[in-house]
Amino acid sequence: MATAVSQPNHQPAGVGKRGNGAAPVLDLLGLTKKFGDFTAVNDLTLTVHPGEVVGFLGPNGAGKSTTVGMVLGLIRPTSGSVSVMGTPLAGNQPLVSDHIGAIIENPAFYPYLSGRDNLIAHAKMVGGVSASRVDDLLKLVNLHERSKDKYKSYSLGMKQRLGIASTLLTDPALVILDEPTNGLDPAGQREIREIIPRLAQDGHGVLLASHMLHEVEQVSDRVAIVRRGELVTESSVDDLLMRGGHITVRVEEAEVAAAIQVIQHLEGVENVTVSGGVITVVVAPERGRDLNRALMETGIVAAEISPKRNTLESLFLELTEGATV
Ligand SMILES: Nc1ncnc2c1ncn2[C@@H]1O[C@H](COP(=O)(O)OP(=O)(O)O)[C@@H](O)[C@H]1O
Ligand SMILES: [Mg+2]
Fold it and tell me: What is the model's pTM?
């Protein structure tokens, strides 16, 4: 699995067309769902703003689809709340159709109509959608060159992208993609990944539920990691990478004890261990200079100071206790 991080090239959160510090499109507060004695989602708090992609990442069974079901008003929360555009969803189901676009399992498309004609048929049902908007959407999902071909000739990935275009017809504030690349080959997966940042660029808030780390890390502004129904961490991809790293320090054997004394009192140092004369300091990997300076001030010259940055993959595995992903 690739661990390289490519930065999303779209605008930061809040500067999309609905940007300018607008209210969150989705607000989950203490959301909990129990199926009998089993807690599928536990006290989940999460926010999605306009113009940002929030990756909702966790192994299979973590509670992602149950959460999506509650956001869509299909599953009733045991406790906690879902707010859409600042309004509680409970008792207000039209909020979903007004503001949320979600890919349903098998969107109804006619096999013998072209992709474009199918989208026009959907647009007629929605109402008030111009033909030029249909063409813009076909372009957005990279189907413009195949838009006149029959739906039945489309690959699974193309069908999925037409489904995404269809959910955008109502110009929803929030787009929910739950495992959007399931069943697609690598090329199909890449084509979906390419269009996700464009949705945020257009001002939609995007909630991307996935068990695939590389899918989420490449396109998300923020990542919320869930395990067994609980949020284990939520932050930007960059911040996640800064976390969980460590620094190894090598000093003269006679100075090991003194060095540990100095290091363990530094701010941000979580843990210090020593093995075979090498001191391992659990601290943000970019703090090497601070460690070096503190040691120098006490007259200790380190022979080696090596930052070890965690990959997001190792962090994810650590956070999710090695669950298969
Ligand atoms: N209707 C249900 N009744 C009982 N258990 C359920 C139901 N729906 C989901 N679950 C359980 O809740 C957990 C979370 O499922 P799900 O939300 O589908 O996870 P994910 O989408 O993260 O893979 C799983 O253990 C699943 O078996
Ligand atoms: Mg799921």
Answer: 0.79
